Amino acid sequence: MNKTTFIQQLDHSAIESAISRAEALTSGEIRVAVTHERASHALATAQEIFMRNGMQQTKERNAVLIFVAPASQTFAVVGDEAVHEKCGGIFWQELTNAMSDRFKAGDFTGGLKQAIERAGSLLAAHFPRQPGDQDELSNHVIES
User: Fold this and answer.
1) For residue range 103-112, what is the model confidence (pLDDT) as tens digits?
2) Does the domain spanning 3-129 belong to CATH 3.30.160.70?
């Protein structure tokens, strides 16, 4: 995953649309973050971004962050406590597998969209959308 290629090929509007579609099925919240810096510890960096952006403050504690650091060729997926409790380890494995295969093929936007769609389906199984649910977090890609 080449940092420059990754960032140039990333289609923000397609990612944000995928988030909107996925969140239409669930009360869960999904965000994507991309850093231009190297992240030697992707999971720790993702957890920091998760907290800094208030993702732990959703009503049902069911937010998911997909974090990518193309400069270090790493990524991580972080979920809040309710996601861990209800979705289990298969959730994380399915999301990372979906991204990894597409990233290796150079399809960066496609990898993120596939992970977002899978996250939406898995979240919907445990956190279905209810009448009156509101989008608690922005769907915009976080860049740092």
Assistant:
1) 888 888 999 9
2) no
